Amino acid sequence: MGIKGLTQLIKKTSPDAIQHVGLYSMKDKRVAIDTSIFLYKSLINCRYNDDYLRSKDGKIISHIQGLYYKTNQYLSMGITPIYIFDGKPPIEKSECIQERVKKAQICKEKSDMETDEKTKQNLEKGSIRIKKEYIDDLKHLFDMMGVSYIHADGEAEAYASELCRLGVVDAVVTEDMDTLAYGCPIMIRGCIDKSIKRTASTITTFSFPKMLEDFQLTHDQFIDMCILCGCDYCPTIAGIGPVRALKCIRKHGTIEEYLAKEGSATDEFKAKYGKARELFKVFEGKIDPENLPIHSSAYDSERLYNYLVNECSMNGNRVTKSLR
Q: What is the number of structural domains in the chain?
């Protein structure tokens, strides 16, 4: 989910923190990629006749094809990707995860009964869940491509944000706006401006330092504002949206001061917001850039071609062209 209403608040309060540029502008840069984002997109978009792409043996390969060509795009532009896989989520997120699982199940049940193809397709998209076999497939793919990855001991966007804050990578590629709450200096999303001509290589970048300057907040205050906006770790306070959340923290500095002087909140909020703060700094000071648990391998074009064409039934001519 990310942070409720944060994108619009940034557009309003710190428009200069947002830039719409070509992906080529990241040439010679190293980026950490929140793998789940591309994985979900591939499972949703890489389809044939409203079904997943499959090999001749019936194996789902939508995620393999999608991530192969997306990674190829980055490499061909001189960008070095490091994929970050999600580890075990914090227990504070269990309620949010349960809601997502329930929603996916409802979408699946409705899809099974739906007769209208367009509606059925939309419902199927809402029912997609990431499976361990998909993760294993991608690790196998990256091994042959010579592309590095890290399986984080927590949430991927949190780990990637700390890598960026430490200067290990130049930016983080994700769609989750809570990446900014983790303190990521430069975040990359797909282009969010519908008024400009967008292509597959048009991206939107967010500058966190510029954002803090325009919001007139410290990082700690920005985290408190995001908690008031609404995040995955904590319930919201009735009557507070993004604009009011910013005003409250600008005026009072902290959630404690706001609650003491003019606000009220449920016991659940009071019990959870402190832990939420900690989770937005969960990796701070805990990652040694000299000893990263990074998995690296050598590029093997022959194995890669055999895997994509013979095992995954991808188009041989297209694969050969992309390998060049």
A: 2
